[in-house]
Amino acid sequence: MVVAIGFEGSANKLGIGIVVDGTVLSNCRRTYITPPGEGFLPKETAQHHRDNIITVLREALANAKICTSDIDVVCYTKGPGMGAPLQSTAIVARTVAQLWNKPLIGVNHCIGHIEMGRLITGAKNPTVLYVSGGNTQVIAYSRKRYRIFGETIDIAIGNCLDRFARVLKLSNAPSPGYNIEQMAKKGNKFIQLPYCVKGMDVSFSGILSYLEEKVPKLLAEGYTPEDLCFSLQENLFAMLVETTERALAHCNSQEVLIVGGVGCNERLQEMMGQMCEERGAKLFATDERFCIDNGVMIAHAGAEMFRSGCKMKWEDCFITQRYRTDEVETTWRDD
Amino acid sequence: MANDSINVKLEIPFPTNRLAQIVYDVLKVDQEPKRSGVKKELSVSENILKVKFVSSLARQSRVAVNSFFESLNLIVETIDFIGEPTSEEYTHF
Which amino acids does the record list as binding a divalent metal cation (chain A) (predicted)? Predict the structure, then answer.
């Protein structure tokens, strides 16, 4: 039995979760929400995490109803992410590891998402679409690594959506992407937008610039903000479904797993579901509790690493803003 | 201004050597950002955490010292919440 506590704070979500062998004991989270039209910056986000982390930790320990001496391993997000928020979170993880005298393991954020998705949905060996505010990757497992088949060559899809929400001055609560999704449901006039799939990779920044420039003109022509949200979503998600389908065909896989914050978008799930149905594949997705960054995913991935004998030297418990998914050897998978 | 002319030295006392050692171990893992222009040296003697900042500009030292205190504060808050260390030394290096 492995009891693990996980600290996540790579972006504007601060999460602490506790798991016992894949069973979630607690999953606590706070989100730093900025005013409409503004994004979150590293300094302010780190301050938010420092202000809230003890409260979240207290909540996580209380909800889990366990004795701290039962905890086997302390896990934290090593990267990728914003430096200052990662560091604030790692500092607390290191301090509790020292005070409790427990081993400390740094977890790759992307691996956390994948392992959490596999745990919750029961997908065995899926082709993974990882879509969030900071990452967009199509991933498949092969010989001890999660390999990146395609990814964004500039900004992440969530970043594109968030920044478009800022153009329209949509609220950032609960998240800009959620508000775009709700508006898109009411849109029906489709606007042709640039479609940027380059081989297995995708590009979003050009689409965003195009829209940023055209929004006043389009609104004047009688398109509603709802139409714009609708068109943007359809266009972006079509790009993702196309690259995922190609990866699926290449790997001869029968499973697709969507993880990451944008993964809770129901329209994306619907489009991916259609593609899967046509191919006779199965789609796995989770809801906002596990899609959006959380501490449980770090705890679970860290527990898997710990179980497979992974140890980290104290000097290696730093944080790194760049940390690719395929840098990690998946010692816990033997298929 | 001449290079490395700004020196800041701080000494922070803790109730025990063990606590000073923990704070030192937690802080020493993070390097100063490459472009900060600041050299930071940490050490512990007895129950005192010592830190020295060397830089060529006052602005750089100010940023480094502020950031140091933010981190230190967070560690102390965590210790206050969790309580005394459960062991005499950390055994998982």
Answer: 109, 113, 130, 293
Domain ranges of chain A: 3-113+290-327, 125-287
- Strands across the sheet with B48-55, in order? B6-13, B48-55, B38-45
In CATH terms, the fold of domain A3-113+290-327 is Nucleotidyltransferase; domain 5 (3.30.420)
Distance of alpha carbon A178 from alpha carbon A173, whole angstroms:
8
Instruction: ipTM value, please give it.
Output: 0.96
What confidence score (pLDDT) does residue A27 get?
97
Which one, of A329, A322, A262, lies nearest residue A113 by Cα?
A: A262
In chain B, which stretches have pLDDT less than 50?
A: none
E strand or H helix at A79: strand A73-79
- On average, the pLDDT of chain A sits at 97
Quick check: A108 and A323 in contact, CB under 8 A?
yes
Distance (Å) of CA A269 to CA A25, A258, B33: 27, 8, 40
Distance between CA atoms of residues A76 and A299, nearest Å: 8
Domains A3-113+290-327 and A125-287 share a fold: yes
**Measured between alpha carbons, how far is B28 from B66 in angstroms, rounded to an integer?**
16
Distance CA A76, CA A69 (A): 18
Look up residue A207 and give its amino acid: I
Residue A58, C-beta contacts closer than 8 angstroms, at least 6 positions apart: B81
Residues A190 and A235: their CA atoms lie apart, in Å, by 9
- Domain B6-82: assigned CATH number: 3.30.310.50
Chain B residues with CB under 8 Å of A91 CB are 26-27, 30, 71, 74-75, 78
62-121 in chain A: CB under 8 A from chain B: 68-69, 83, 87-88, 90-92, 94-104
3-state secondary structure of A313: coil
Task: Give the SS3 label for residue A322.
Answer: coil
CATH superfamily of A125-287: ATPase, nucleotide binding domain (3.30.420.40)
> What pLDDT, on the 0 to 100 scale, is given for residue A7?
98
**Any residues with CB less than 8 A from the CB of A215 and at least 6 apart, and which?**
A167, A168, A228
Q: Is A59 annotated as a binding residue?
A: no
pLDDT at B35: 87
In A281-320, the residues whose Cβ lies within 8 Å of chain B are: 311, 313-315, 317-319
